[in-house]
Amino acid sequence: MSNDIYSTYHLYPPPQLSEIKTTVVYPATEKHLQKYLRQEVYLIRETGEDYKNITLPFIQSQSFSIQWVYNILEKKAEADRIIHENPDSSNGFILIPDFKWNQKQIDDLYLIAICHRRGIKSLRDLTSEHLPLLRNILQEGKEAILKRFGLVGSQLRIYLHYQPSYFHLHVHFTALSYDAPGCSVEKAHLLSDVIDNLELDSQYYQKRALTFALRADEALLKKFQEAGKA
Q: Per residue in 99-140, pLDDT tens?
């Protein structure tokens, strides 16, 4: 399977040996390499003002390619893997298995809901305007997973990452029993909590401080250090 710079390969050795699955990123950027290197990690407490003055300008200055996301949304790649789609351009999304899940058992179930609407980078952009989209993802995602895989909503962990690994709004669906990468308290925000918070205050995620981890050689950490915030 191939999508932009990402390819997945399976090797099937003799039956007594386990299947081998690998993901190849080519050509890989420095950011890709950093992601898989072991490094010291630091917690950042980002206020709303920090986001406006430090994080957002940094994001806008970088060339993070998300062509592979658009390929999925436009069905130029991975169309055969789509589990569910709401095609509405504002409040719709595609639900698709994550690369990390081989779909052979539900113990480590992992799917991603990618919204059709462009321009929503992360949790920080969300307001009450986006509640119909978020409710659709929550409800329809649970229904699709129950229908296809037999897991009820109370057996799922449904959350957003902050900061995300790519800046196009997406939601993670994992089996609750699976200790998935990125489900720790400094990374994951439950979708149901996000919806509740936006119902209370449309500007909730523009105002509140958010905590996240950065690796030692990430350029954004340097920006926070230069601003005396880390």
A: 889 898 999 999 999 999 999 999 999 999 999 999 999 999
pTM of this prediction exceeds 0.70: yes
Asked whether the beta carbons of 204 and 198 are under 8 A apart, the reply is: yes
Residue identified by tokens 């609407």 is 117
Which tokens hold the place of 90? 């504002």
**Residues with catalytic function:** 170
Three-state secondary structure readout of the chain:
CEECCEEEEEECCCCCCCCEEEEEECCCCHHHHHHCCCCCEEEEEECHHHHHHHHHHHHHHCCCCCHHHHHHHCCCCCHHHCCEEECCCCCCEEEEECCCCCCCCCCCCEEEEEECCCCCCCHHHCCHHHHHHHHHHHHHHHHHHHHHHCCCHHHEEEEEECCCCCCCCEEEEEECCCCCCCCCCCCEEEHHHHHHHHHHCCCHHHHCCEEEEEECCCHHHHHHHHCCCC
Token pair listed for 43? 């917690």
